[in-house]
Amino acid sequence: MKLPWQKTKEELVEKGAEATSKRTLHGLYRIYAFILGFSLTIFVFYTAFFGVFLPMIQIGIALGVLLALSFLWIPAGKASPRSRPSALDTVCSLLALACGFYTVLNNARFIARIPYYSEILFWDKVVAIILIVLVLEVSRRTVGLAMSIIAGVFIVYAFLGGYMPAMLMHRGFTLNKLVDCLYLTTEGFFGSMTAICAGTLFVFISFGVFLQETGGDKRFMDIALSVAGHKPGGPAKVAVLSSGCMGMISGSTVANVVTTGTLTIPLMKKIGYTPEEAGAVETVASSGGQVTPPIMGTVAFLIADGIGVAYWDVVKVSFLPALLFYLTVWFFVDTKARKKGMRGLAREDLPPLGRSLLTCAPMIVPIVVLCTLLVMKYTPALSAAVCCLLILAMAACYKDSRLSLKQLTLAIEKCSISMTSVIGVMACASIIVAIMSKTGFLLKSTSIVMLLGGGKLMGIVLINIVMSYVIGMGLPSASCYIILSALGAPALISLGVTPIAAHLLIFWFTQLAGITPPVCITAFVAAGIAGSSPMKTGFTALEMGSTFYLVPFLFLFTPLVNGTPADMVVTALITALAFYMMVSCIENYLYGSFTPLLRVLCGLTSVCLFFASFTTTSLQTSILMSVAGIAASLAIGFYQKRRASRSAA
């Protein structure tokens, strides 16, 4: 049996392509799919502007249609036909629509009944069971078996609670109780996570779709080329900028690597980066898009909903951590380029910055307007919906980005199709969270994590790191976050960590599996494009993305997310210098190679600066460490520069 890192280049690229693969439909199937997708997008945008319906109507329609679309567009496996759905897929698609229709028709009865007491009709049970099966299957098709298996285990746990060990024991579910929990109340399929899918998340994904359909990916790439293409290691810096911009919108690190990496990786190799370095840069830059505001993949909405704060409150405290992450990646690629004496691309081969900014206006202005509306406390769904229309309006002013009527209708349909990669996972997560809550597992999990962590904050943080890595091997970051936020966040909060810091810490740790060997699928996909060793690419990505491990500690022990604006900025500046010295030490280069003693001093300076802002130290000690670290950094830099000048002379 082959291990993950023994896959061929073709298998790795194919694995990345699976993240975005869909069927190509024709004939009546294509018409049927178009009507469903187009209608659902119009429905969701209508509710974004004029207000949502009751949960079982809003979610019932969205869930039924998205599941139906999933069976039409997503093949069951390699043997499944690619030009049309199989007979079973067609039946499942119609069943999903029927379940949504049944839910909407019976909405009034569901609202009027008393949960866990009123009579449950035979068809209520049938529809609930069908929905469970369909959701598990769609989740399997989109993200693999892991999420479906976990949801299945929790369903079994619900029934066998009386046979569990004492710490996990509960009274056990009957079929009626399971149907009540998952279908007839707003705890399961009609809870907050699927509500986000049927509203806010749908509109934000549509925002990303419209950006891409009007040429956003090319325009972001042009700006990145104009800004950084001519600098030392230019293509790597282009990868950092463009992958970060597209990664925050796409919501998938693998899809982003496949999209932007096909251009940036060959360019990086061409100017002197090794294949492993080129693949690692693309891996880390794409992964960072998940933690970058204002969209942050899909998790920002889940964090805001989970801790009961405004979406903008999550976004605004995430700017500085994301900036620190990308600054560190930039330091790595710049230091490597200067160390190897690389040059950038010729200016005459690059688009002029002024023209790039002008042509990118349809992309930049809507993002600025989106942030402005969020600051002004408009709802995220309405803000994104307005900006979607703004994208289309501004794109119409440019010939190369203007959409024809056919392109516009297909883009509207694509918004619904893009949601098929999310709905199965979110509905599965709803099953898990509902059962965890109803069985008391959520309360018990805090005790379990506290026990495993020895009741100490650092012990619990280490437990969260391990769980994030293990669970993240088989699940996308959003799914991993949902599970870990239920298991690990309460334990952190019980020890005095603020809710937003606890949830952001877990969110950042969920990115670890994509860059940490031996199972780092994002690095494997990049290695397939770069033609490099997957394991070497993974370890290089781990080095460049080391801030995924370090920044979360700043959430706990510094004012980076909980302090005043001044404290947050000062902390970010000191930490940025710490990371710069860390990169110089790792790469053994600052205007030239270090002597062994100076390299050690550089590393110690980085450590001193990193801990300078920690609130666990006294104010006097923090000031002393900051001053000493800054002075040492300046002295080392000055000495290295003079040493390099003498060598050149």
What would your notes on this structure say?
- The chain is mainly α and 649 residues long.
- 74% of the residues lie in helices and 0% in strands.
- The chain has helices spanning 9-18, 27-50, 55-73, 87-105, 107-112, 122-143, 145-159, 175-184, 192-197, 200-213, 216-228, 234-250, 253-271, 275-288, 299-307, 311-316, 319-339, 353-359, 361-375, 380-395, 405-439, 441-452, 457-472, 477-487, 489-494, 499-509, 512-515, 521-530, 534-544, 547-557, 565-587, 596-612, 619-648.
- The N and C termini lie far apart (58 Å).
- The model is unreliable at 1-20 (pLDDT under 50).
- The chain is built from 33 helices and no strands.
- Helix 3 packs across helix 21 and helix 14 (275-288) packs across helix 28 (521-530).
- 54% of the residues are buried.
